Amino acid sequence: MGDRLAGGTARQRPHLTTRSLGSARFAVLAALTLDGVLSAIAGALLLPLYVGAIPVPISAVISGLVNAALVWAALQWAPTPRLAALPLWAWLATALALTLGGPGGDIVLSGAGIMQMAPVVFIVLGGAPPAYLLWRVTSRPARS
C-alpha cells in the first residue's frame, strides 16, 4: 500500500482506522439518535398547523426529510444498517410516546375531527422516507 516510489515507506495512517474511531463513532451515533428524538418532538408540536380552516401536516413531511437525512448521516458512521437505524427508532419511540397521556392527561398527538388522523399521518409521513432509505441500502446487491 502506498509503494508508488521505490524504496519509500508505505503510507498507512493508523490513526484513521476504524478501531481508533470507536469513541467518535459512538458520540456521533448518540448525537444523531438525540436528533431523532428532537425531530419527533418538534414535528409533533408543529403538527396542528392550519392554513385557513384546513390542517396542513407540513411538519410531518419536514420531519420525514430530517429523519432521512439523519439516517443517511448515520449510514456514513455506522458499520451496519441496523445501527444506522437508531435515529429512526428513537423518532418512532418518541412519536409513539407522544400519543400516550401525560401526567395531566394531555395528549400531544390528538385532536377532534380530521385531526384524529394526525398520529397516523405523522408516523407514516415521518417514518416512510428513512425506512425507504434503509430498505434501498439493504436491498441493493453487494459489490464484488
Automatic annotation (TrEMBL):
Q: Which UniProt keywords apply?
A: Membrane, Transmembrane, Transmembrane helix
- Tell me where the transmembrane regions lie: 26-50, 56-75, 82-102, 114-135
- Name of this chain's protein: Facilitated glucose transporter
Record the organism.
Mycolicibacterium hodleri
Lineage start = Bacteria, Bacillati, Actinomycetota, Actinomycetes, Mycobacteriales
